[in-house]
Amino acid sequence: xxxxxxxxxxxxxxxxxxxxxxxxxxxxxxxxxxxxxxxxxxxxxxxxxxxxxxxxxxxxxxxxxxxxxxxxxxxxxxxxxxxxxxxxxxxxxxxxxxxxxxxxxxxxxxxxxxxxxxxxxxxxxxxxxxxxxxxxxxxxxxxxxxxxxxxxxxxxxxxxxxxxxxxxxxxxxxxxxxxxxxxxxxxxxxxxxxxxxxxxxxxxxxxxxxxxxxxxxxxxxxxxxxxxxxxxxxxxxxxxxxxxxxxxxxxxxxxxxxxxxxxxxxxxxxxxxxxxxxxxxxxxxxxxxxxxxxxxxxxxxxxxxxxxxxxxxxxxxxxxxxxxxxxxxxxxxxxxxxxxxxxxxxxxxxxxxxxxxxxxxxxxxxxxxxxxxxxxxxxxxxxxxxxxxxxxxxxxxxxxxx
Length: 402
Known about the structure:
This protein is of the alpha+beta class. Helix content is 53%, strand content 7%. The protein has two domains: 6-200, Up-down Bundle (de novo design (two linked rop proteins)); 210-395, Glutaredoxin (3-Layer(aba) Sandwich). Helix 1 packs antiparallel against helix 3 (82-101) and helix 3 (82-101) runs antiparallel to helix 6 (177-200).
């Protein structure tokens, strides 16, 4: 057994690192299968550091995003993409060691197969990295570790293949096409086996759908419900704080899932800000009261104000935490026609009635909440399990079937 080339060593180390990072990411996803809240490993050295419980962190945003898993409507939480990623890195490590042990570091076909195999994680990393930057505006350290490992594996594999091409051995000494086909099948098995085990061990959460309560007083005598529209025929009420990170993530999941198109939604504002909400002892989301007043002042343009607030919520919360009046100034600058209405006695009274509506329905002090035709989507199903639970709740609602 000859000494491996430095480039093969790079691929082996990169594959091991990718396996390490993807393994921890998969573990974080699996932890949430009990429908509870858990900390995440959000560090470049997750095995040596504590877990991150900040729900606004990049790692949490990525895990709870609609892009972290596939087949979400069929499986609670979907199949985390970190699981097949972990399997792919394991196969890359296996194949790299095969090249070393069998002395095929200069085999054009064998190294070409290695290069082709690295295209999968590097391509997936490019797509996910673009989504993280342009859509989620989040940076997850575990994900960055996977991206770097993918890039290093590709660079090492490319260099190995180019070196093998320059060597020009006889075709009779190269690995056979049949062997490569069998190796491809083995690679598929590397991915399929853990995914199959994952699916076979998944708990059945369908029994919880529709079992988390109903609205006691869905009527709206004071006009606190804000029409959001939608092409669906199923009536839904969403309890929302426009500066709530979980609410923004919920809106993203709802849009990407396509399930929002089957709803005709109204929003009830529930700002978690002690400036106007006597049910909280501190400003969980500073500035939420002023932004909620702007939404109520906007009339038919309320959905546009909500969409803007969801996009700008980090900036608004940060400024409002330093200066209580900052949120009103920011929203007034963006929507000048609302400036005279924000903070007025009339809109404050209307926002107070919105909070009273929540009290009359005995709603918990949290956001987001979704009621489909009066039936609550369980709080545990508003993040990873939303697609799974909401699709089933809709299928049991008249007019909700696709």
